[in-house]
Design a protein that fits this description.
Blueprint (H helix, E strand, L loop, with lengths): L3 H32 L6 E6 L7 E3 L5 E11 L3 E13 L5 E6 L3 E3 L7 E4 L3 E3 L4 E10 L10 E11 L2 E3 L4 E2 L4 E3 L7 E5 L7 E4 L5 E10 L5 E10 L8 E10 L2 E11 L5 E6 L5 E2 L4 E10 L6 E2 L1 E10 L5 E4 L8 E4 L1 E8 L4 E2 L2 E12 L3 E10 L7 E4 L5 E6 L5 E4 L6 E3 L2 E9 L5 E10 L7 E3 L2
Parallel strand pairs: 1-11, 2-13, 15-26, 27-37
Antiparallel strand pairs: 1-3, 3-9, 4-7, 4-8, 4-10, 5-6, 5-9, 10-12, 14-16, 16-22, 17-20, 17-21, 17-24, 18-19, 18-22, 19-20, 23-26, 24-25, 27-29, 28-29, 29-35, 30-33, 30-34, 30-36, 31-32, 31-35
Length: 452
């Protein structure tokens, strides 16, 4: 029997139920909207031109199992991750990792033999990109002899509407643990430099060098060499980077480009594109050089990461992935001396010995001292004058064919760019600049002196 209380409570309770039901419907609507694909943007997924079935040898890298064509329709398409699956008559243990060439790898399968490659790939509108699902085989596959695994693309994480059918599976390769393929090993090269200072605007600096040794099984065509960018250098600090390959008295130059791994690690990549074949058992050298554009106080440290190539006999990718450590360069300001020259016979009532030009790079320099070397053993009344005829240092007498200029204030400033001084003395003499003691005004870093 309904009491007066329950009769009054019922409309209120009924209202609560309706509100709750409305909230559930609204949350479902929001989730549906957020999960909906981008309107009008389609990712077309198709099977590509599949490779020929073959042998999966021990240690083979980048062995292509499946090719997939991806086409962006109606706008650019961004894929946030790829889900791959080991399928066919094989086992996960034969692979050290699987992945997508030039996109990313994964070595961590879940319980359903699936590998997630967490890397972003953007396909411009109207373009088709072919991706290759690859397997990196373990170096010991005795337990997997004659397995015939396949690799499948099973899912894509994207906001675009997917047109096509997944999974897409390519070919099966038969595992043969008895086939010995080529190999590459790396060590620091003969021109690998020690740690030290490098001046801004210094050119053709060798930052890292590696020695390449090819195994005895087959010749190898070199493909890509990678260096970690482990220093604090920024864009513009290294300009005109070039990789140089030295082999049997010949040299090849290849452009070096900044490259980011799927985890965001910055690297330099030298693409040799299999243009040079190194004979089995031979050694070669490849080094990375460039010019220093800016970055006083920052460091350049390029550590060799990996080198890969293609076996000339069996066609498998081989690589060395043992990282090495190169030296660290600290970028410092610099003074470059330009040869002295004669301007006139006399200057400011003294004998004009000539001019000397100092070029300061990176930042304003605090000059602590400049030492002039003369032909005479005891130079007399030697002075430095600026371009306006103002006495900068001196007059000073020297000994042992040298005279050192200092400032009463401890130092004097030299602006960036070129500054020309006139050197005078009591008698005619020949001179040269023996040394310059200077530091950066702001960084307090000793300047690297070149050309003296």
């Amino acid at each position: 029997m309904k009491t007066l209380f329950t009769q009054r409570l019922w409309p209120f309770r009924y209202t609560i139920y309706l509100v709750a039901f409305a909230l559930v419907l609204f949350s479902f609507f929001l989730s549906s909207v957020s999960a909906a694909p981008a309107p009008g943007i389609v990712l077309k997924v198709e099977s590509g031109n599949q490779p020929t079935p073959g042998i999966a040898a021990e240690g083979a890298r980048g062995l292509v199992y499946t090719r997939v064509n991806l086409t962006a329709i109606g706008g650019d398409v961004t894929i946030r991750s790829f889900t791959l699956m080991r399928t066919g008559g094989g086992r996960d243990g034969a692979f050290s990792s699987i992945g997508i060439e030039d996109v990313g790898d994964s070595g961590d399968p879940n319980g359903e033999h699936q590998y997630k490659v967490k890397a972003t790939l953007t396909i411009p509108e109207g373009e088709t990109i072919e991706i290759e699902l690859k397997g990196n085989m373990k170096s010991n596959m005795n337990s997997y002899q004659y397995d015939r695994p396949t690799l499948s693309l099973v899912a894509l994480d994207t906001d675009a509407q997917i047109q096509g059918t997944l999974p897409i599976t390519g070919v099966a390769h038969t595992i043969n643990s008895g086939l010995v393929i080529g190999s590459i090993s790396l060590a620091l090269g003969p021109q690998n430099p020690p740690s030290g200072d490098v001046a801004v605007l210094e050119k053709n600096v060798i930052f890292s060098s590696v020695r390449i040794t090819i195994g005895a099984a087959e010749d190898v065509r070199l493909k890509n060499m990678y260096w970690f960018a482990n220093g604090s250098s920024e864009d513009g600090d290294i300009v005109n980077p070039v990789g140089v390959l030295l082999y049997r008295g010949k040299a090849w130059e290849f452009p070096a480009n900044v490259y980011f791994d799927d985890d965001g690690t910055k690297k330099y990549r030298v693409k040799m594109d299999q243009t040079v074949t190194i004979t089995k058992g031979d050694i070669a050298e490849v080094y990375l050089k460039g010019d220093v554009g800016s970055g006083v106080g920052r460091t350049i440290k390029l550590d060799p990461d990996k080198l890969n190539g293609i076996g000339a006999t069996y066609g498998y990718e081989v690589r060395d992935t043992t990282s090495k450590t190169s030296g660290t360069f600290t970028i410092v300001p610099a003074i470059f001396r330009i040869s002295p020259g004669i301007t006139s016979e006399t200057y400011q009532g003294n004998v004009n010995l000539g001019t000397v030009t100092l070029e300061v790079l990176g930042e304003v320099a605090d000059i602590r001292s400049i030492t002039i070397r003369t032909k005479s053993a005891a130079p007399l009344h030697v002075s430095l004058w600026d371009a306006d005829g103002k006495l900068v240092a001196g007059p000073a007498d020297g000994s042992n064919s040298e005279v050192t200029f200092t400032s009463a204030g401890g130092s004097w400033e030299l602006p960036t760019g070129k500054t020309t001084y006139t050197v005078t003395a009591l008698t005619r003499d020949n001179f040269s600049v023996a040394s310059v003691n200077a530091k950066g005004k702001n960084s307090k870093v000793p300047l690297k002196i070149n050309g003296i």
